[in-house]
Design brief:
The structure holds two protein chains of two kinds. Helix content of chain A is 75%, strand content 1%. Chain A is mainly α. Chain A has one domain. In chain A, strands 1-2 form a two-stranded antiparallel sheet. In chain B, 64% of the residues lie in helices and 3% in strands. Chain B folds into two domains: 64 residues; 66 residues. Chain B starts with 5 loop residues before the first strand and ends in a 14-residue tail after the last helix. By secondary structure, chain B is mainly alpha-helical. In chain B, helix 3 packs antiparallel against helix 5 and helix 5 runs antiparallel to helix 6. Chain B is flat. The chains are: A mainly alpha, B mainly alpha. Chains A and B meet through helix 7, strand 2, helix 8, helix 16 and helix 17 of A and helix 1, helix 2, helix 3, helix 5 and helix 6 of B.
Chain lengths: 500, 159
């Protein structure tokens, strides 16, 4: 494919006004992303009307929105790492190792590593977008319901890696997450499931309510417990830059996760949360020796690279097919339509300044974000030095605000509190929150696609095993579960043979 | 496995695990009954809206039984003083939120922040100051900085 559109794009993106918009977008996005529930979607939705009324040309508008998207993706990590309150769905996995790192006094290192791996993930995704956009667009349309079922089963197979010393608790957590997705209106049959005649439950339980409840509220209750035991200690800030050995250890997980994140981002309907979940569980499967979840830099690097790569990947179907790959790109697609522009393969030839300008601005935005954020890490991390009597009320109020501003409903906030108490009780019983979140993220996609696939085949289950893509995914899923088990058995058998 | 051994601050608390497992088993049964009561006229797919929840409740029952037989480790139950504070924090927060449309966001935020600060060790006077400062700061940021709707409260602004 000719790259002429990209050179045209760079000429557009490098004009002073567009560079300024890119910088403004990165900065605003980072601030917006750091506030719980005001993630990329809300950020873009807030800025879009302003950009439109300012009569920005379409390419400048898209450059600003893309910069906000990238900035918010990074901003969401700040609260996730420092205070265990994920700013958006894609930041949930980041909290699993990011927050323990902050508690160990390595918050600044974790934020810097997050900026670095986000940069690598973001850049690889833009390179992928530049060279493979039309090709990947046609690959993504070959994913039908059966292929999605296989992809979800592959994701669940990677989840098996989270089975630790108490597999039953992981499984129960996952089932609870899956169950939560069944609440609300079933779009296929029009039936209300487990809504108990409560109109607030008709649309199901929103992801942000579950995430803030399970992570933030339960964490506050655990902190209260530490306060009582006198074990709640101020968190040290630590040095700012990760060690060379940490960077080296994170290199391959970052590359692998960027590639998988980008591919998952390309698939419509999946996005950053699935990408970061798959990357985290895959790396845990490959590398974990009991350190993941306790503050392992690689457990932070993998989801960070993946969700930024997925953010870039989500632009592929949007630009080439007019099908948004994520909620945020759906809003951006709406922005293009405001300008009477219909994306599609012809966009690259008919409006090279727009497609090229957007892609070129992503290269520039990624570099800007890195330059902007690394010096700011020391400022962000000062948040940890705020006394608990100030910090914890702020976390509690931000959690309430996060849910209230998203849904304008008192019932949703009360539901978030109830879920938080449930999460606290489960954590006291030794349950991990991650499988619940994974079950929730994957559940809806799994059920919908399973039912769609069986509807297409008239109930014939063999449809799940008919295409090359789905069969490859099934084989990979089986391998990812069985291979480590088989290797462990072989090693054990060898050791006992040598002993004898 | 001993039910009363101690390790790393975690207690092998078989009883609390078994109680949780029993709750889970009851929940699985209730879920199966509730699934049976889902009403629908027709479904355009062969599985229908009940199959997935049935599969989940059956899996939950199997896992619940396994958990009951091998409850594993758990933290000890919280002491009564901690439990009182935890319940107090959640109850006061829930009541303040429940009244938000009536008393307004500012008053709700003041109560929530002040009470939380107090529970986390601030003196009564500092808690009032923290409540006032934080509620004002976040109200101004969200209301005027981000243009978010926050209720003023029908108590202060009737009609």
């Amino acid at each position: 494919m000719s790259l002429d559109y990209l050179w045209t794009g760079f000429a557009v993106a490098l004009t002073p006004s567009n560079l300024l918009l890119s910088l403004l977008g990165c900065f605003l996005g980072t601030l917006i992303g750091a506030l719980p529930a005001i993630g990329p979607i809300n950020g873009i939705a807030l800025i879009l009307p302003i950009a439109y009324t300012m009569k920005l040309p379409p390419e400048s508008c898209m450059i600003l929105l893309a910069a906000i998207y990238y900035g918010a993706e990074y901003g969401g990590r700040i609260t996730s790492i420092l205070i265990n309150v994920p700013g958006d769905a894609g930041a949930v996995m980041t909290a699993l190792d990011g927050y323990p790192l902050a508690k160990q006094g390595r918050g600044a290192e974790a934020l810097t590593m997050s900026a670095l791996t986000s940069f690598v993930g973001g850049m690889l995704a833009v390179v992928g977008l530049t060279f493979f956009a039309p090709l990947l667009g046609s690959f993504a349309v070959r994913f039908g319901p059966a292929e999605y079922v296989a992809l979800m089963m592959f994701a669940f197979a990677t989840l098996a890696s989270m089975v630790g010393a108490e597999p039953v608790k992981t499984l129960i957590g996952c089932l609870i997450g899956l169950l939560l997705t069944t609440i609300g209106l079933d779009p296929t049959s029009g039936a209300y499931r487990f809504t108990f005649d409560q109109p607030e439950l008709h649309d199901g339980i929103e992801f942000i309510i579950i995430v803030i409840g399970l992570f933030s509220i339960s964490e506050i209750l655990l902190m209260l417990e530490h306060q009582f035991k006198g074990t709640l200690k101020p968190i040290p800030i630590g040095k700012g830059f990760p060690s060379w050995s940490d960077i080296k250890a994170c290199w391959w997980p970052t590359i692998r996760s960027s590639v998988s994140g980008f591919i998952i981002g390309v698939l419509p309907g999946t996005g950053a949360s699935v990408a970061s979940a798959v990357a985290y569980t895959t790396e845990k499967r490959l590398l974990d020796k009991g350190t993941f979840g306790k503050g392992d830099m690689r457990g932070l690097a993998a989801p960070e690279a993946a969700n930024n790569a997925a953010a870039g990947g989500a632009f592929v179907p949007m630009l080439t097919l007019g099908v948004p790959g994520s909620g945020t790109t759906a809003v951006m697609l709406g922005a293009l339509m405001l300008y009477n522009i219909t994306p599609g393969p012809q966009l690259f030839t008919e409006r090279p300044e727009l497609a090229g300008g957007l892609i070129a601005s992503m290269y520039i935005g990624n570099i800007m974000l890195l330059i902007l954020n690394i010096p700011m890490v020391r400022i962000f991390v000062k948040m940890l030095q705020v006394p608990n009597t100030w910090l914890i009320p702020a976390i509690l109020l931000l959690s309430i605000l996060g849910v209230y501003t998203a849904y304008s409903s008192v019932m949703s906030v009360l539901l978030m509190l109830a879920i938080g108490v449930g999460g606290w009780a489960l954590r006291k019983q030794g349950f991990d929150m991650a499988p619940i979140i994974l079950g929730f993220v994957l559940g809806k996609v799994l059920e919908t696609n399973l039912r769609n696939a069986l509807a297409l085949s008239g109930g014939d289950i063999s449809i799940l095993f008919q295409s090359t893509i789905s069969n490859s995914l099934w084989v990979m899923a089986v391998l990812i579960v069985l291979l480590p088990w088989w290797l462990a058995r072989r090693t054990k058998a060898r050791a006992s043979a040598e002993g004898a | 496995m001993s039910d009363s051994s101690h390790e790393d601050g975690h207690r092998q608390d078989g009883l609390s695990g078994r109680v949780s497992a029993a709750v889970l088993l009851v929940f699985a049964a209730v879920l199966a009954i509730a699934t049976g009561q889902i009403e629908y006229a027709f479904s355009s797919d062969p599985l229908g809206p009940q199959a997935f929840p049935y599969i989940l409740s059956a899996s939950l029952a199997v896992c619940g039984t396994w958990y009951f037989l091998r409850p594993g480790s758990a933290d000890p139950w919280p002491g009564s003083e901690l439990l009182r504070s935890a319940v107090g924090l959640i109850a006061v927060t829930a009541i303040a939120i429940g009244l938000m449309d009536y008393i307004g966001f500012l008053a709700t935020a003041f109560i929530v922040c002040g009470w939380a600060a107090y529970l986390f060790g601030a003196s009564a006077m500092s808690a009032i100051a923290i409540g006032a400062a934080q509620s004002a700061f976040w109200f101004l940021l969200f209301k005027y900085g981000l243009g978010t709707y926050l209720p003023a409260g029908s108590l202060l602004f009737p009609g």
